[in-house]
């Protein structure tokens, strides 16, 4: 009787396991076949059911920090997905609400304020181009954590780089410098911004400090890119001067970098810090970073200063 | 010597009920998700693993507390195995207290295993991270303060277990589960009752709300997860108040459960 039961069990298993495998394979095959007929509906990235951070905070019970993480990941995906999208009508409409909810759920989420402000301030189409929202987010951070000098420093940064309001930038740097534990160089940065705001030297100082104090790879990469852009702007000035000299000697625009190499102005083709040769317009003689350079677009306000 | 025996019996029964398997599943899910999370969080993986781990310990513990707690007494009565137990030289009060201690032990072991799993994942991230990345963390990955948050989660679960046990002495399992979960929700909202006077003008309503605020469990006292994850200090006095409150509340609930069970007609 016992042997019979074991044999029946083995038989059931020998039928059950292959049948289960077959059915699972059929499910996957059917899904793939259906997708070939009709591609799956894209997730509507512009959908946000609850927009009140306070309401979500209450609904999250004691799991508000975990909810904040979920909204932070969603904000990153929204920003990254939109930025990488090939669409011409990119929309970052949900970025601020997502960051606002994230920071309402977890008011001490430092990176959400700091990265969020950078994302919001980034010019269109690489970002929404909303420095006003970036400053508003940082001010929310300052209310939650007045002991963090980084928030007023970042606000000053936004006024400096994106709004070119150097007086306001200096005021924010000064405010940051007065927070207990703020680094000494903020005082110097305030003075430099007031005296030389907008020139490449003070911009370089700003980004060098950002690079030195950056505590994550993304911020470091951003600072490195900006410093490389500033170097490229210096190179462009030098190359433009060489082209002008060449023209004054020969009377015509060099048709390529080879002409400048042959004339002894250059030892080889000039390459930008991103590793891409600079572009020389053979018709006008204008030099610029190549369209496919990772340094594009260069900050227009810092050209030829 | 009867109490430890009953408590151990409850613990062994929960092991037979395969409760620990959920923990293994938890640990595997946590470890599997941590790799994916690392790709999505812009350098915030340690914070998110801590948030996720603490929330998972709390939620899984809540399920264990409710779904085992509601059956502690009512199942025994339903199965009529209570008669077998009461035929021994054991009082009803001892049964209730022993069962409570047994479930508390089960929760303690489960929370402990989950804490080990969480520290295991964090240890991997701590080992793999470069010093410059570690310097940016608000609190170290293997922060001993996490144990404080986990300890208070256990204390909160001990309160919820006592609530489930109380309902289990006079109500059906389904109703007990609903009522316990309801009290868990209220326990996280009851700060609103404290400030009811800011929304309504009726003095009676304010008085009732204020009374409920003091009577219902205030579970927000046990939530220090965010502080610990962000590396903020939690004062010793706050922990002492929370522990004192829990001991008093659990004592009241278990005594009430024993009182009700002693007077219950089991025929």
The CATH architecture of the largest domain in chain A comes to: Alpha Horseshoe
Q: Output the helix-strand order of chain B.
A: HHHHHHHHHHHHH
Mean pLDDT of chain B: 86
Q: Let me know the largest β-sheet of chain A.
A: 2 strands, antiparallel
Give the uncertain stretches of chain B in residue-range form. none
> Structural class, from helix and strand content of chain B?
mainly alpha
Order of helices and strands of chain A: HHHHHHHHHHHHEE
Write a brief caption for the model.
The complex is a heterodimer of chains A (305) and B (267). With 305 residues, chain A is mostly helical. Chain A has helices spanning 2-37, 53-59, 64-84, 95-105, 110-121, 131-144, 150-161, 166-177, 185-196, 200-213, 217-250, 257-262, and strands spanning 279-280, 287-288.
Q: What does this 3D model show about the protein?
A:
Chain A has 305 residues and is mainly alpha-helical. Chain A folds into two domains: 53-200, Tetratricopeptide repeat domain (Serine Threonine Protein Phosphatase 5, Tetratricopeptide repeat), CATH 1.25.40.10; 236-302, no CATH class. Helices cover 63% and strands 1% of the residues of chain A. Chain A has twelve helices and two strands. A two-stranded antiparallel sheet of chain A has the order 1-2. The longest helix of chain A is centred in the N-terminal third of the chain and has 36 residues, at 2-37. Chain A is flat, with a radius of gyration of 28 Å. Chain B has 267 residues and is mainly α. Chain B has one domain (2-263). Chain B is built from 13 helices and no strands. In chain B, helix 1 (2-16) packs across helix 6 (92-128) and helix 8 runs parallel beside helix 13 (236-263). The model of chain B has no long low-confidence stretch (mean pLDDT 86). Chain A binds chain B through residues 58, 61-66, 68-69, 72-73, 76-77, 106, 108, 110-111, 115, 215-218, and chain B through 37, 40-44, 47-48, 51-52, 55, 58-59, 132-133, 135-136, 138, 185, 188-189, 219-220, 223, 225-226, 229-230, 232.
């Amino acid at each position: 009787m016992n042997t019979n039961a074991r044999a029946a069990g083995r038989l059931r298993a020998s039928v059950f396991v292959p049948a289960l495998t077959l059915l699972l394979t059929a499910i996957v095959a059917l899904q793939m076949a259906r997708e070939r007929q009709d591609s799956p509906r894209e997730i509507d990235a512009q959908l946000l059911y609850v927009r009140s951070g306070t309401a979500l905070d209450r609904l999250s019970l004691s799991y508000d920090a975990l909810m904040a993480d979920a909204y932070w990941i969603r904000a990153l995906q929204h920003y990254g997905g939109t930025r990488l999208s090939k669409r011409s009508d990119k929309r970052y409409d949900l970025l601020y609400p997502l960051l606002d909810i994230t920071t309402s759920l977890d008011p001490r989420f430092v990176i959400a304020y700091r990265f969020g402000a950078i994302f919001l301030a980034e010019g269109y189409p690489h970002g929404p181009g909303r420095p006003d929202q970036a400053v508003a987010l940082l001010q929310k951070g300052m209310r939650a954590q007045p002991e963090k000098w980084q928030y007023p420093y970042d606000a000053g940064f936004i006024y400096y780089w994106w709004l070119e309001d150097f007086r306001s930038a200096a005021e924010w740097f000064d405010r940051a410098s007065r927070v207990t534990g703020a680094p000494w160089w903020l005082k110097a940065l305030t003075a430099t911004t007031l005296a030389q705001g907008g020139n490449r030297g003070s911009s370089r100082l700003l980004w060098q400090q950002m690079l030195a104090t950056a505590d994550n790879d993304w911020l470091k990469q951003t600072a490195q890119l900006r410093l490389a852009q500033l170097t490229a702007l210096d190179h462009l000035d030098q190359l433009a001067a060489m082209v002008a000299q060449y023209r004054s000697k020969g009377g015509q625009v060099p048709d390529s970098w080879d002409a400048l190499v042959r004339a002894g102005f250059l030892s080889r083709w000039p390459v930008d810090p991103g590793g891409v040769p600079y572009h020389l317009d053979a018709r006008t003689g204008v030099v610029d970073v190549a369209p496919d350079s990772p340094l594009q677009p260069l900050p227009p306000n810092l050209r030829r200063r | 010597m009867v109490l430890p025996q009953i408590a151990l019996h409850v613990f062994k029964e929960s092991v037979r009920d395969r409760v620990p398997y959920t923990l293994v599943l938890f640990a595997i899910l946590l470890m599997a998700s941590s790799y994916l999370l690392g790709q999505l969080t812009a350098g915030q993986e340690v914070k998110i693993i801590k948030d996720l781990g603490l929330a998972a310990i709390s939620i899984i513990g809540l399920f264990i507390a409710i779904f085992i707690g509601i059956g502690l007494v009512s199942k025994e009565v339903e199965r009529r195995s209570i008669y077998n137990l009461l035929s021994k030289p054991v009082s009803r009060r001892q049964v209730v207290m022993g069962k409570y201690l047994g479930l508390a032990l089960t929760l303690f072991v489960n929370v402990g295993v989950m804490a080990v799993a969480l520290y295991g994942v964090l240890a991997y991230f701590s080992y793999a991270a470069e010093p410059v990345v570690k310097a940016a963390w608000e609190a170290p990955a293997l922060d001993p303060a996490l144990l404080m948050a986990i300890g208070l989660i256990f204390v909160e679960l001990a309160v919820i277990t006592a609530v489930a046990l109380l309902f289990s002495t006079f109500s059906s399992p389904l109703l007990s589960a609903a009522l316990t979960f309801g009290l868990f929700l209220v326990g996280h909202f009851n700060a609103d009752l404290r400030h009811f006077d800011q929304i309504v003008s009726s003095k009676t309503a304010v008085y009732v709300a204020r009374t409920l605020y003091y009577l219902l469990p205030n579970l927000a006292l046990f939530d220090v997860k965010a502080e610990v994850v962000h590396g903020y200090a939690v004062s010793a006095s706050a922990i002492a108040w929370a522990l004192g409150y829990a001991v008093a509340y659990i004592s009241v609930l278990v005594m009430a459960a024993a009182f009700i069970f002693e007077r219950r007609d089991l025929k």
